[in-house]
Amino acid sequence: MSVTLSALHWAYLSFIVFVIGFMVSKRDTSLICILGIFTLGLLATGSLPQAVIGVFNSLIYAIKSLRGTILIISIIYGMSQLLKKTGINEVMVSPFAKLIRTPSLAYWVIGLLMMVTSWFFWPSPAVALLGAVLLPVATEVGLPAMGVAVAMNLFGHGIALSGDFVIQGAPKLTADAAGIPVSEVVSASVPLVFVMGIVTTITAFWFLKRDLKKGKLTVDDDVEISPVVDESKEEENLKNSLSAMTKRILAFIIPILFVIDVVVMIMTNLQGGDATALVGGTAVFILMVISLLAHKNEGLEEITEYLIEGLQFGFKVFTPVIPIAAFFYMGDMGFVSVFGEVLPAGSNGLVNDLGVALAEIVPLNKVIGSITLTIVGTITGLDGSGFSGISLAGSVARLFSISIGTGIDTLTALGQVAGIWVGGGTLVPWALLPVAAICDVSPFKLAKRNLIPVTVGLVVTTIVAIFLI
C-alpha cells in the first residue's frame, strides 16, 4: 500500500524530532508540543481560530483519556497519607521487619516488599509508608542506608513502576500512543520487566556485597544531615486515635482487600480501565472507613481533605504529561476527535501513514528497532519524570512495527521499560529525591551507584526483546 505524505505528515514528524531534541537537551517539551498541535491544526483546517481552539480541545482530549489514571493515583496517594498518619503502615510492615536479620536479607526483603507495595500504592507513597519503619531495622543488621535506598529504588521505581501492572498508569500512556489495548502492553511487558528487574537487582546486590566486604561502604557512609522530625500535637493525637487492636485488624484487612481485587481481576478477566476502577473503588472505601474511625466527628470533612491532598499530588505528577500526551494523541484518532475529518484522503492516521512510508523507504529489522526503542525510552526519561515522554516511545514503536511487520506490543513495552527505569527514579538525580530523603543519602551518589546495574539491565533486556519480537 503506497502512501503520499502531505505537509501535515512532515510537520508531525518534524515536531517529533524537535521533542527528542528538547529531551536530549534536558529542556521542558510542553511548549514545543503545544506549538506542534497548533501547527497541525493550522495546516489541517486552514483556520487560525480553529487551530487555537484545537490546542485547548487537544488538552481536554488528553485529560479525558488520562482521567482514570490520574484519579486512581490521587486516591491511592490520599489513602497512603492516611495510613501513614494513623500509624497503620507501621503495623502492616512490622511482621516483615522480623525477617530482616542480615544485610542480604535486608536488601531482598525490603526490595520485594517495596515492589509489591508499589504495585498497589505507587512508589512515592510506598517509600513514605515503608522507609521510615524499615531503615532503622536494616542499618541495625549491617545494611547501610545507601543499600536500603538502592533496594527501595530499584524494586519500586524500577520494577514496579516500569510494569505498573495494577494501577496501569504507564501502560495506559504507551498503549494509547501506540494505538493498541492496554492489556497487550501489560502482557508484553511482563518478561521484559522481570528480566530487567532480575539482572539489575542482582548486579546491584553484587556491587553492594563487594563494597561491604572491602569496607568501601559502611552503615555511616553517604549519610547526609539527618532531618529533625518534630511531630505536632495533632499528628501525635491522630497516631494514637486508633487502638493497637484496631490498627492490627485494619493492617490485616487492607492487604487482603487488594489481594481479593487481584483474584477478581483474574477470575473475571478484568483489564484496563475496569481493573483500575476496581482498585480505585476499593481504595476509596478504605480511605472513608479509616478516616471516620480515626477522625471520628471530623471524619466527614477529613475524607474530602485527603481527596484534595491526593488530587494535588496526582495533577502535580501528570500536569507535565498532558501537553505531551495531547501531541502524540494527534498521531492517531485523537486528531479526528479534535479537528474533525480533515486528514488527507486515504489516511489511516499520521503515525500509520509515516510507518507505511518508512517501511517502503527503510526496511527496518528487529535488532535496529529494539535498540532504537531502548534509546528513545532512555531519552524520554532524561527529564526525570519517567512518565512525561513515554507517549513518544509508544508512537515510535507503532511507526517501527509497521516497517518491521510485527512486534508493536514488545517494542512499546521495551520503550516503556527503558523510559521508566531511566526517568522514573533510578538514574536521574532529581527523580531520586523521595528515596534519598527517606534514607538520608545523596541522590547523586545513589544515581551513580545505580548507573552500572541499570545499564547492564537495559542491554540484556534489549537482547531479550529482539528474540521476543
Please, could you describe this protein's structure?
The protein is an all-alpha fold and 469 residues long. The protein has one domain. 78% of the residues lie in helices and 0% in strands. It has 21 helices and no strands. It has helices spanning 7-24, 30-45, 48-86, 88-97, 103-121, 123-140, 145-163, 169-178, 182-214, 233-239, 244-268, 272-295, 299-318, 321-329, 334-339, 350-361, 366-380, 390-404, 408-426, 433-439, 443-468. The longest helix has 39 residues, at 48-86. The two termini are 23 Å apart. Residues 222-230 have low confidence and may be disordered. It comes from Halobacteroides halobius (strain ATCC 35273 / DSM 5150 / MD-1). It is found in: Cell membrane. It is a multi-pass membrane protein. Keywords: Cell membrane, Membrane, Transmembrane, Transmembrane helix.
Itemize the secondary structure elements and their pairings.
Elements: H1 7-24, H2 30-45, H3 48-86, H4 88-97, H5 103-121, H6 123-140, H7 145-163, H8 169-178, H9 182-214, H10 233-239, H11 244-268, H12 272-295, H13 299-318, H14 321-329, H15 334-339, H16 350-361, H17 366-380, H18 390-404, H19 408-426, H20 433-439, H21 443-468
Helix pairs in contact: 1-2, 1-16, 2-3, 2-14, 3-6, 3-8, 3-12, 3-13, 3-14, 4-6, 4-11, 5-6, 5-7, 6-7, 6-20, 7-9, 7-19, 7-20, 8-9, 8-18, 8-19, 9-19, 9-21, 11-12, 12-13, 16-18, 17-18, 17-19, 17-21, 18-19, 19-21
